[in-house]
Structure formats: structure tokens, C-alpha cells
Write a structure and sequence with these properties.
Layout (H helix, E strand, L loop, with lengths): L3 E6 L4 H11 L4 E4 L11 H11 L3 E4 L7 H6 L1 H21 L4 E5 L28 H21 L2 E7 L1 E3 L12 H15 L3 E5 L5 E2 L1 E3 H12 L3 H6 L7 E4 L5 E2 H12 L4 E5 L8 E2 L4 H5 L8 H15 L1 H4 L2
């Protein structure tokens, strides 16, 4: 049996590690994994040399600089520069080395701030972006267009998936630079440990968000990557190379905070700091295309949050200040 070699860029991150877990369960897959110390994806020369030497059969491009509202607001240059460099280097080097198939992972923030809900793939580039993460979003849009352009010009089979808000094991639980679920899990956990009476949550609690467990995301990645080219192209016409990945359901931040409080066992009061930004009023993806391709999410939010909290406790992240 032919061993298929697969390079997972960003295999130590939340999404990359979940993709690795999925691929490890499959026969005939030889994983190519490189740490940041082994391979600097922002270095054109290093990436070119790696691709030329290894010539993988498939590439999952899960490497990215990511963060929440605070991080995006504080480090906009880092977010646009590093993400542009990573995707441009990996996608071009893959093409130059004759890599037949690649999967690029974007983000739902590629869609306009006031896009019609739920957001369909066709909403891309139809209006202004959410200002707080516009540099990151533009880098991700560039990645989609890189894949689309190489497919058009060179006939490559480079695909893009746009996940909704992801959470799960190996998430970033940094107190300032994390996304909403890890930030709240940590905050509620620490409040419980310290016996605090109240937890304050950023914003009004009104915005609605969709959340997808990273193991579901990884399963969707492998499912889409294994589709025949003709099937993928049929579902991404006309001129679309990306497909949304989500659950198709959302909840308000206040509802999320209540579920997290229950998950952690925090019995105090939840308040909302309305001086902090809300971000987009609603972000829900239309997952019609993905469902038509034979995949849908299977991990309910409460189950996924419990799994993530167990991981947090096992790894002592909150105690270490990571």
C-alpha cells in the first residue's frame, strides 16, 4: 500500500494538533511534522527547501498567528505580516514542488461586519470588515485568493475551509490574548478557585456567536481533503474555492457565559462590562455547502466545553499563567 505523505503546517497549534490526531487514525498516512525551530514558515528560502526535499502528497496549512479582539487590536502589523508570509511561502512552495493537493484554513472574520446572517460563502468581499480584526481578515482573504488563483492559472487542487469560532484542547488560554471560550473558562475557573462572588465578561453579552469543537473541525478538514476534485469543484462554483465549516447554530455571549459557569462550577454572579467592545453583532455561518458534501458537526457545545475544561485542568494551564 502506498504511503501518502502529509505535511501539517502548524501541527502544535489547536487546529493542527487536532488534524494530526485525525490522520494518525488512518492507514497509509505518513505525517511530516516540523516545529517552528525546525522550519520557519515566514522564511521563503526555508519553506522552498523543505518542500523541494520532501515533496509531500498533501499539505494542511493550519499554521497562523491568531488571537482575540485585544490581540488583534494591539498587534495589527504582526497579524497581517506573519499570516501573509506564511501562506504565500507555503502555497507557492507547494506549487513549485508539485504538491498536488493543499488545504488552507481561514476564519469567519473574512466576511463583512454586517453580512447577512447566516453568512454564505458568496458574501466574501461584499462589504467592510469588522475593524478590530481587519488586518488578520485581509491576510486570510489573501490566502483564499492565492489558492483560487493558483487553481485558475496552474490547475492545482488547493482548497480552503472557513471555520467558525473554534475551541478545544491546545487552545490559547492567555489572560489577554485568547479568544472568548478559553478566556472565560480560565476566568471562571480562577474565580471559583479564589472564591470570588462575581465574574465580569467583556461587552454587553448580546452578540451571538457560533462555536465549533476543534475535533469536529479536524474531521471536516480530512473529509473535505479526501473528496474527489470534481466533487469539491462542483460544490464551489462559480469561482469559489472556500467552504464554511460550522455547526449552523449560535448562542449569545451571555448564554455562553452561563454554560461555562455551570461547566466550571462557578456559583457567583455574572456581570457585563459594557465599556469593552462587542465586536460584530452576530457571526453565524451558512453550512449548506458542507452538509451537501456529506459532513456535519457532531459535538454539542456543553459536551465540548466539558472536554476543554478537563484538558485545562489536566494541563494546569491556568495555574501556570500560560
Amino acid at each position: 500500500m502506498h504511503q501518502k505523505t502529509v505535511f501539517v503546517a502548524g501541527h502544535r497549534g489547536m487546529v493542527g494538533s487536532a488534524i494530526v490526531r485525525q490522520l494518525e487514525e488512518r492507514d497509509g498516512v505518513q505525517l511530516l511534522l516540523r516545529t517552528r525551530a525546525d522550519l520557519d514558515l515566514t522564511s521563503q528560502a526555508e519553506v522552498r527547501e523543505f518542500m523541494t526535499e520532501t515533496r509531500p502528497d498533501e499539505v494542511y496549512l493550519a499554521a497562523a498567528k491568531v488571537g482575540g479582539i485585544h490581540a488583534n487590536n494591539t498587534f495589527p502589523a504582526d497579524f497581517i505580516h506573519q499570516n501573509l508570509m506564511i501562506e504565500a511561502n507555503v502555497i507557492h512552495a507547494a506549487y513549485a514542488a508539485g504538491v498536488p493537493r493543499l488545504l488552507f484554513l481561514g476564519s469567519s472574520c473574512i466576511y463583512p461586519k454586517l453580512a447577512e446572517q447566516p453568512m454564505r460563502e458568496e458574501a466574501l468581499l461584499t462589504g467592510p470588515l469588522e475593524p478590530t480584526n481587519e488586518p488578520y481578515a485581509i491576510a486570510k482573504i489573501a490566502g483564499i485568493k492565492l489558492c483560487e488563483s493558483y487553481n485558475r492559472q496552474y490547475g492545482t487542487d488547493y482548497r480552503s475551509l472557513m471555520p467558525t469560532n473554534l475551541y478545544g484542547p491546545n487552545d490559547n488560554f492567555h489572560p489577554q490574548n485568547s479568544h472568548v471560550i478559553p478566556a472565560l473558562l480560565r476566568r471562571f475557573h480562577e474565580a471559583k478557585v479564589r472564591g470570588e462572588a462575581e465574574v465580569s465578561v467583556w461587552g454587553t453579552g448580546g452578540p451571538r456567536r457560533e462555536f465549533l469543537h476543534v475535533d469536529d473541525m479536524a474531521a471536516a478538514c480530512v473529509h473535505v481533503m479526501e473528496l474527489p476534485k470534481a466533487v469539491y469543484e462542483e460544490h464551489t462554483q462559480p469561482m469559489l474555492t472556500h467552504i464554511n465549516v460550522g455547526t449552523g447554530t449560535d448562542c449569545s455571549i451571555s448564554e455562553l457565559a452561563a454554560v461555562i459557569a455551570r461547566t466550571v462550577g462557578f456559583e457567583g454572579r455574572i456581570s457585563f462590562d459594557t465599556s469593552k467592545p462587542d465586536g460584530a453583532p452576530r457571526k453565524l455561518l451558512d453550512v449548506t455547502r458542507l452538509n451537501a458534501l456529506g459532513w456535519q458537526a457532531s459535538i454539542p457545545l456543553e459536551e465540548g466545553l466539558a472536554d476543554t475544561y478537563r484538558w485545562l485542568l489536566q494541563h494546569g494551564v491556568a495555574e501556570e499563567g500560560n
